[in-house]
Amino acid sequence: METFDAAVIGCGVAGVTAAISAVRQGARTVIIEKTCTPGGLATAGLINIFLPLCDGNGTQVTFGLAGELIERSMKYGPGKIPPDWMEKKNAPEVERLRCVFSPAAMILAMEEFLLENQVTILYDTLVTDLVKENGVIRSVTVENTDGRSEIAAGAFVDASGSAVLARLAGEEVSYGKNVLSLWALEYEGSRQYGRDRMAPEINMLTRGNAERTFTNPTAKDVTDYMLETRAMLRKFYAEEQASGRSDRFQRWPLFIAAMPQFRKIAAMKGVFELSDNMNDRFFADSVGLVSDWRKPGPVWEIPFGTLIAPHTVNLFAAGRCISSVGDAWEITRCIPCACLTGEAAGCAAALRCGTEGDLTSQVQKVMEKNGSILHWRR
Prior knowledge:
- The protein is α/β, with parallel strands linked by helices and 378 residues long.
- Helices cover 27% and strands 26% of the residues.
């Protein structure tokens, strides 16, 4: 059995920021990822838009590791933040503090970020079970090419995107509805600039079927989702070639998603649940702010209670797993909130291992020290 101070499950955006945050608080940290790629939906899932860190009216609201990561997302590939975003009022999403990044470049940058911070990375490793005693997770069971083993830790962060650890721990979860959706990177030889093109020749092709939905997806659902989206892509290119609009040298797929593009699988029901119409509301235990990426104006305080497992004292959620439902889930599932909640959850995991006292106030102090604004005041 290998032992760490903190263990993070899932190497998506939330997991990466959680692991780095924990290390920066002095915790020896491991991050466990079932694939061989960091970034989750942002990279393997090709959802490659770093959504806005500002309110659409020229004010940045999300800071800390979110600010560090948006800069790193452009380190090894194209990406551009609108230079005049601070001057905008009621700005649409594309004119705000955001960027489109290369998924492959983001993989390189995120992995480098983890290694620089001395996070132990375990790729190709699946969490299958855990040992929990008196409300405390003692260890998780993992399986990889070496077989089955145990990893013990003082605290755990569920950044799996599907609340896998929370469910194994017996915590209650909420399930969200997902529609059949395809994003794929393609070469498109017309060399036209578009809304989210990284370069003139590279386009993000999107397709979908809003009538085809998945809630609490099973293993068969995952397979069906991948088969159906790829069939959709084959049909598109076959029709393009048959019509003469393009041929296989003018327009072709560069990369397709290596995972189902489910946005909302399962979220842990925490000590507090964020729900509809809670934007612009004060929460005493807020750990930071995020904006509404869909429209300018609304800002959400994220309560620490949404990260805390009610029945497992050393388990914290991050990213798409935090306690939110409905319209709030549309906000918390995205990259800015994944960065913020990952940073807070990693900090909490490290502090849970080594300190006593009021954890909420300790996490808030660290988040403020790292640049986060806790409360929104117009």
